[in-house]
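tokens incoming
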């Protein structure tokens, strides 16, 4: 027994051994002190009625996963390249999963009370200022009882209809399995998409009140890893592109066309605005005004103010700006479109800018066009595909930049630039900025893993697929990707995020240990003084 345990411990990564070694320390701290228990509940984000929320969450997630497994096995049983034993085995598994999934749906719709989970999601995901479903009572937010009652009935109706369609689908599949048509395949696909969509929403996006802090961390890890995997696979495939006869010509023409389209956007009529009033008090500026013009007014660059700045007030509409300018003593001026300015109002400054519906696509298309032309030129000099040059540039750059720099750049200047160019239309939440940054940063490492898996496939298989007349995208989908993913699966795991998890746990452990030591010293000092 001891030899078996020792061999198992030797097979665990050293960083994970450190994590396991801290578990008794955490159990002692949080089990012996109510203060640490409250701190743990606050860190994990545990709300009221956590066990009921956890039970509903697990019921929903398990039921949806069972539905996906049932559809997966039913679809796999239709494959022609299998014997009778494999087909019957898959059909048996599909039936077991289908019946269990139906049982979970019946329990969710007619047995359990979904009110706690529905209220938790509504209260935490809806904006109280714009929603009539949630009310504020002091420090607490609650969903209206009639809304919860309506959702309770709606869930029961949806589960009843879904369960009826599910049973009908099972019966039709069992009768027409030998001569299945496209309609039944589309029906299976729709069922699969419904289950997958609900699973992704519940598992990755809906508020999890039983441990919102813990789930936010897990969701960020899953989404960041998914982004890194997708981008890494794309970069790895781009790294394998070969130059063809007209590659540089096509990409060069496309780059020129993109630049021409962007120039068309930049030649669109500009919006003329006039600053009216005085600079004594605040200046009303309409939302959506380019940040450059706002900064120019705020900093006083357009006026001779001897270093004095101008105060600004943001308003939603032109009518609101005019109303404040005429009736509010604390607003002495307004930046208005030229067509809405009364000739009798004193005019201080005029300028023009390109509307956001033209400026954002113009800058975006211009960047794509110039970048494509640059890549085409670099590829022509080295005899490489332009997109392969792009993949190599991104991989080398991302691997050479520290992760903290990537997070700060994407989270602050890049996100701000995108928001400004889009006129506030694209505003990425702070949480997703960090997730996107981590996904992009790790995509370079995932690209190297995927590239190693692709290069491990025997070249003879790819050449054989080409001789059979398969197109390149079919070779990638049918020959390269299935084998490459199987090869890289042991390496492409969540081990990439182990250093973050280990560092976080060690930080918490050291913080709690230091706090305990300080409390002990303080207590002994008080005893000595007494």
């Amino acid at each position: 027994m001891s030899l078996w345990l020792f061999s198992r411990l030797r097979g665990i990564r050293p960083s994970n051994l450190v994590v396991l070694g801290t578990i008794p320390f955490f159990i002692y701290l949080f089990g012996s002190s109510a203060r640490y228990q409250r701190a743990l509940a606050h860190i994990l984000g545990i709300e009221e009625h956590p066990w009921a929320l956890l039970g509903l969450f697990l019921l929903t997630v398990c039921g949806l996963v069972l539905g996906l497994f049932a559809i997966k096995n039913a679809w796999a049983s239709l494959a022609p390249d299998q014997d009778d034993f494999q087909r019957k085995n898959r059909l048996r598994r599909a039936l077991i999963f289908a019946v269990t999934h139906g049982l979970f749906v019946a329990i969710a719709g007619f047995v359990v009370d979904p009110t706690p989970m529905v209220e938790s999601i509504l209260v935490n995901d809806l904006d109280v200022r714009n929603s009539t479903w949630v009310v504020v009572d002091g420090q607490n937010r609650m969903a209206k009882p009639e809304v919860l009652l309506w959702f309770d009935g709606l869930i029961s109706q949806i589960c009843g209809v879904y369960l009826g369609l599910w049973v009908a689908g099972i019966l039709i599949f069992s009768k027409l399995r030998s001569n299945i048509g496209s309609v039944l395949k589309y029906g299976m696909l729709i069922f699969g998409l419904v289950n997958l969509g609900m699973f992704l929403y519940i598992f990755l996006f809906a508020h999890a009140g039983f441990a919102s802090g813990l789930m936010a961390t897990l969701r960020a890890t899953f989404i960041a890893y998914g982004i890194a995997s997708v981008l890494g696979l794309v970069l790895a495939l781009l790294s394998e592109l070969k130059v063809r006869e007209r590659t540089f010509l096509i990409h060069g023409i496309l780059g020129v066309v993109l630049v021409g389209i962007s120039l068309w956007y930049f030649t669109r009529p500009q919006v003329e605005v006039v600053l009216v009033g005085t600079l004594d008090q605040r200046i009303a500026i309409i939302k959506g005004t380019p940040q450059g013009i706002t900064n120019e007014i705020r900093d006083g660059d357009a006026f001779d103010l001897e270093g004095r700045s101008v105060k600004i007030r943001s308003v939603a509409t032109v009518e609101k700006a005019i109303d404040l300018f005429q009736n509010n003593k604390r607003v002495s001026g307004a930046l208005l479109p030229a067509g809405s300015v009364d000739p009798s109002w004193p005019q201080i400054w005029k300028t023009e800018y390109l509307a956001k519906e033209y400026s954002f696509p113009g800058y975006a298309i211009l960047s794509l066009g110039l970048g494509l032309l640059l890549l085409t030129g670099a590829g022509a000099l080295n005899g490489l595909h332009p997109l392969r040059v792009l993949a190599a540039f991104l991989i080398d750059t991302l691997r050479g930049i520290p992760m903290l720099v990537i997070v700060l750049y994407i989270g602050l200047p890049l996100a701000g630039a995108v928001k400004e160019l889009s006129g506030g239309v694209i505003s990425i939440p702070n949480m997703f900025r960090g997730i996107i940054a981590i996904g992009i940063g790790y995509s370079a490492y995932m690209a190297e893993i995927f590239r190693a898996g692709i290069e491990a496939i025997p070249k003879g298989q790819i050449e054989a697929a080409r001789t059979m007349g398969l197109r390149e995208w079919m070779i990638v989908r049918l020959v390269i990707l299935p084998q490459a993913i199987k090869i890289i699966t042991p390496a492409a795991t969540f081990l990439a995020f182990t250093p973050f998890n280990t560092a976080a746990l060690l930080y918490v452990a050291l913080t709690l240990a230091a706090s305990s030591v300080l409390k002990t010293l303080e207590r002994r000092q008080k005893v000595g003084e007494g």
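note: The chain has a mean pLDDT of 82.
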